[in-house]
Design brief:
CATH architecture of the largest domain: 3-Layer(aba) Sandwich
Structural class: alpha+beta
Order of helices and strands: HEEEHHHEHEHEEHHEHHHEEH
CATH superfamily of the largest domain: GIY-YIG endonuclease
Largest sheet: 3 strands, antiparallel
Strand content: 5-15%
Shape: elongated
Number of helices: 12
Number of strands: 10
Number of domains: 5
CATH topology of the largest domain: GIY-YIG endonuclease
Strand order of the largest sheet: 1-2-3
Distance between the termini: 101 Å
Length: 364
């Protein structure tokens, strides 16, 4: 043992003398005449608690511990007496946790499969070489069962997780960070003009705000803060009360997306001249989405104004309504054969309803 420990000083091996029996991991190995004898070893402090039947988990997740215990039992060269004793133990564990599972049937199935695999060197089942696509979804009871069938039709396999855990209910051992000590996207506003600077940081907001303040107070020619450069050029003052966090986000790519979104949002609200960011992207998904959103709003305003300017007069509307009723009666007579109506023109009814609403607005 001293020779082994002398080879690697960072690794120290120990020697335990167990006599005729020794426990190693979850096995109990015993020396017997002609070989070894194996059995399952459990500590005296084992709680025998697995996922309870009342837990909101997928049934396969509740059965997984017992399937693993059966697989371990079959893989070991255990004598029949110890084998039957372990089966009784698995049944007791399932009963204590409220799980209804036919352990005997599961054991027979596993033993049969293992024996059939040993009879031939060829694979008994043809495995597909297609890459399986897993999708992570919360377990929602019977709804998840129906969702799994739809996902499998599109080559997706669901991986379930619990939507509510103890971590959501119990507070962690560490004190929560104050918002100013987190990272994310922030906004710096000039106290004397509508100029705005949007930035992102992986460090705390306090650290980043102090860096902008130091850049303003140092009054250096080569400054790393566009906001401080604006304040010095215009003679405005720096105020920490105008430094506010917008989004708390530790992930880098999401911070960049949120920063770009806030830049274009403030650009639309205050104008291009009020944004102090030197690099403003004109391309990408977020600028296209923001421009489309603003264009839709403008088109909606224009359509409302044009519809209000083209409304018919009350007397004009009455004449149009009479003509429409007459046309509608003629069309119904044509479609009515042997007392059965062939069809109705619902589009005309919608047009009449729109005209009525337009006339009522003009009267008011």
């Amino acid at each position: 043992m001293s020779d082994i420990n002398g080879r690697y000083k960072t690794i120290q091996f120990t020697l335990e003398v167990g006599g005729s029996k020794i426990n190693f991991l979850d096995l109990c190995i015993q020396l017997v005449p002609g070989g070894h004898k194996f059995s399952i070893f459990r500590k005296s402090t084992a709680s025998d608690r697995y996922i309870d039947v009342s837990s909101h988990c997928h049934p396969r997740q509740k059965e997984a511990p017992y399937v693993w215990l059966v697989n371990r039992l079959i893989a070991l060269p255990i004598e029949k007496s110890n084998f039957n004793q372990e089966i009784d133990t698995i049944k007791t564990l399932a009963r204590r946790n409220g799980i209804t599972l036919n352990v005997d049937k599961l054991v027979r199935k596993k033993i049969t499969k293992r024996a059939m695999d040993c009879l031939t060197s060829l694979p008994r089942s043809v495995k597909s070489h297609e890459r399986k696509h897993w999708i992570r979804v919360p377990y929602l009871g019977k709804f998840s069962t129906g969702l799994a069938k739809i996902l499998k039709m599109h080559n997706f396999l669901p991986g379930y997780y619990k939507d509510r855990t103890l971590g959501c209910i119990l507070q962690g051992p560490k004190d929560p960070l104050p918002p100013i000590e987190k990272s994310g996207v922030y906004k710096l506003s000039c106290p004397e003009c509508p100029a705005v600077y949007i930035g992102e940081t992986s460090r705390s907001f306090t650290t980043r705000f102090s860096e902008h303040q130091v850049a303003y107070e140092s009054n250096l020619k080569k400054r790393k803060s566009a906001f401080a450069e604006h304040l010095i050029d215009t003679g405005h003052k720096f105020d920490l009360n105008n430094c506010k966090p917008l989004h708390f986000e530790p992930r880098y790519r999401k911070r960049l997306a949120l920063e770009e979104y806030e830049i274009h949002k403030h650009r639309m609200l205050y104008g291009e001249d009020c944004i102090l960011n030197k690099v403003v992207s004109e391309y990408g998904i977020i600028p296209a989405f923001m421009s489309r959103e603003s264009a839709d709003a403008v088109c909606e305003v224009k359509s409302v104004k044009s519809s209000q300017s083209c409304l018919p007069e009350p007397q004009e509307y009455r004449d149009m309504e009479l003509e429409h009723d007459k046309d509608k009666e003629d069309k119904n007579d044509e479609n009515n054969i042997n007392g059965c109506t062939i069809g109705r023109n619902e589009k005309d009814e919608d047009n009449v309803l729109k005209m009525e609403l337009a006339w009522l607005e003009s009267v008011d």
